[in-house]
Amino acid sequence: MTFLEFEKPIAELEGKIRELRSFASGSGQVDLTSEVGQLETKLDKMLRETYTKLGPWQKTQVARHPERPHFSDLTDSLFSDFTPLAGDRNFGDDDAILGGLCHFRGKACVVMGHEKGFDTESRIKHNFGMARPEGYRKAIRLMELAEKFNLPIITMIDTSGAYPGVGAEERGQSEAIARSTEKCLSVKVPVIACILGEGGSGGAVAIAAGNKVLMMEHAIYSVISPEGCASILWRTSDKARDAAHALKITAQDLQKLGVIDSIVPEPLGGAHRDPTRAIDMLGDALEAALQDMDGISPPQLKAARREKFLAMGDSGIA
Q: Which helix (H) or strand (E) holds 174?
């Protein structure tokens, strides 16, 4: 497991537990069960104390942890019969946003989300989850398909932002993001969005304007990355920690502000420590959100979504 900077004491304690277990199994004569049990109790207490007091910058590190569940992990374990659909029918396909048809706990739906990749090769293939215009136009096509067949839409957000390259700008990045956001707001089917890790800038909002917006406990969601904000305000990314505090990017802050609807709990120590359980907990939250919208008519779904985001502006939330 990859340990974060603030997890050094936790890493040292886990190392001691592994050493004791290895020594006990190797000797075959020494019973260290009691000692290991005491250390595990201490580890559990340390994890609880650490993860209940995480600051915005520490949560940023957790949200970016490479071993957190990815979109491809969800399509493998949470969504069954996943059939990927590719291309925007205009320019090409984009591997930063994946999507298609699937079943979620027996219910047919359309699912899409950012994929960052899990090693060097896959990260390059998926462009680190930073979508180009064709990715957002593919998202629009999938949303139109969902509306045509009256299927709920589930979106998973995990991106530092849309790709800022020259080619993306030439092909209309801003227009594609705006139209994807507009489509999220206008479809007459349930739209549930979940911030898995990072929710950065318009690249996240483009597929996150849902009836229900869920957010993992240690995820972040902001108009700009802490480093980007620091570079603009202080002319140095060294102030990223200060920017993270000022931006109110944590799930807890955003729920208070009314930007998100609910927080999805993570296993003790973060989703990266127990991805399987984290995915199960996310599945329960998604199922509950879908059930909340059962029986609501298409016009009401669209109107409720519109009123929700207009209310954010009326209350001073931007």
A: helix 173-186
